[in-house]
Design brief:
Blueprint (H helix, E strand, L loop, with lengths): L16 H18 L12 H10 L5 H14 L3 H5 L3 H8 L5 H19 L7 H4 L7 H11 L9 H9 L8 H9 L7 H14 L27 H5 L11 H8 L4 H6 L7
C-alpha cells in the first residue's frame, strides 16, 4: 500500500508574519518532544573549557574535539595555565582537531586576554567575548547560553541551513539570520532552540540528503520533498541515536545519561 505523503507547509511568500511565527514555534515544540535530551555536544565543565572547546570545534567535529580536550585541560586546567603554555606543546595536544597551529595560537592568546583583561575570568557579555582571539558571535552565544544561562541563538552551518530550509528567513549572513530568527521566538527559548535545530540538522535534515520521509516536522516544512520521502529509505539516512538499531542508546539519552557516561559504556556518538 503506498504511503500517504505529508503536504508541504505554506510557501514562505504566501505566509503571513503571524502565521510564520506560529509555525516556527510549533516546529520548536515538536523538536523539543523529539530531542528532549538536546544539549551541547561538546564536553565541558565550566566557561573556560567551553570557550576553548568551541574555538577548537571550527572546521572539525565535536567528536574530535571531545577526544582532544581531556588531555588539554588536564595539562592546562585554567586560563592562567594555558596563557603560560608553550605553543609547540599545545599544538601537539590539539593536532587532531585540524588547523592545529592556528587553533593553538588562538587559544593561548585567548587565555592571555582573559587573564590580562578580565582577571582570569571568562566574561559574560557578548561584546566582551567577541574581542577575544578566535571568538565570533557563534562562539560567544554558545558560551553565553550554556555556561552563563544567558539566551543566545547559535548560527552554525546546520542552523543556517535549516533556518532557510524551514522558511524562517531568506538571509544568508549569520548575524542577520540570528536577528531574523530571534524575532520569531521568545528570548527564553533561544538557547534550547539552537540545540534542537543543530540536533535535527545532524540527525535528520542533512545538507545533501535530508531524510524527509521520517522527519517529525515534515508537515510544517515548506522544503519537504527535497530529500528522500520514502520512509524506509529515509530511515537508512538517520544518524546518531535515531538510527535503526540504536534504540538502546536513544533510551539512555532520554533517561538523562551524559555523553561522557555513554562513551564510558561503549557507545560511539559520532558519524
Amino acid at each position: 500500500m503506498p504511503v500517504e505523503q505529508p503536504r508541504k507547509a505554506t510557501p514562505r511568500d504566501r505566509e503571513t508574519t503571524i502565521g510564520l511565527k506560529r509555525r516556527a514555534r510549533k516546529i520548536n515544540r515538536v523538536l523539543a518532544e523529539t530531542y528532549p535530551y538536546a544539549v551541547p555536544e561538546l564536553d565541558f565543565e565550566n566557561a573556560f573549557e567551553l570557550i576553548i572547546a568551541t574555538v577548537l570545534s571550527a572546521q572539525t567535529t565535536d567528536v574530535r574535539v571531545n577526544a582532544a580536550t581531556p588531555a588539554l585541560f588536564a595539562a592546562y586546567p585554567d586560563p592562567i595555565a594555558l596563557s603560560e603554555a608553550e605553543l609547540e606543546d599545545v599544538q601537539e595536544l590539539v593536532r587532531t582537531t585540524g588547523f592545529y597551529r592556528t587553533k593553538a595560537s588562538n587559544i593561548i592568546a585567548l587565555a592571555r586576554a582573559v587573564v590580562d583583561e578580565y582577571d582570569g575570568v571568562v566574561p559574560s557579555r557578548v561584546e566582551d567575548l567577541v574581542t577575544l582571539p578566535g571568538v565570533g558571535r557563534k562562539t560567544a552565544n554558545v558560551v553565553l547560553g550554556n555556561a552563563f544561562g544567558i539566551p543566545g541563538i547559535t548560527v552554525d552551518t546546520h542552523f543556517l541551513r535549516l533556518a532557510r530550509r524551514l522558511g524562517w528567513t531568506l538571509e544568508t549572513d549569520p548575524v542577520k539570520v540570528e536577528h531574523a530568527v530571534g524575532e520569531l521566538f521568545e528570548k527564553r527559548d533561544w538557547t534550547m532552540l539552537s540545540h534542537r535545530i543543530v540536533f535535527h540538522g545532524r540527525r535528520i535534515c542533512h545538507a545533501r540528503k535530508p531524510a524527509c520521509g521520517v522527519c517529525p516536522i515534515a508537515t510544517l516544512c515548506p522544503s519537504y520533498g527535497e530529500g528522500e520521502v520514502d520512509p524506509e529509505k529515509a530511515a537508512k539516512l538517520l544518524k546518531y541515536e535515531l538510527a535503526p538499531g540504536r534504540e538502546d542508546l536513544l533510551e539512555l539519552m532520554r533517561s538523562g545519561k551524559s555523553r561522557r557516561e555513554l562513551r564510558a559504556l561503549g557507545f560511539g556518538l559520532g558519524t
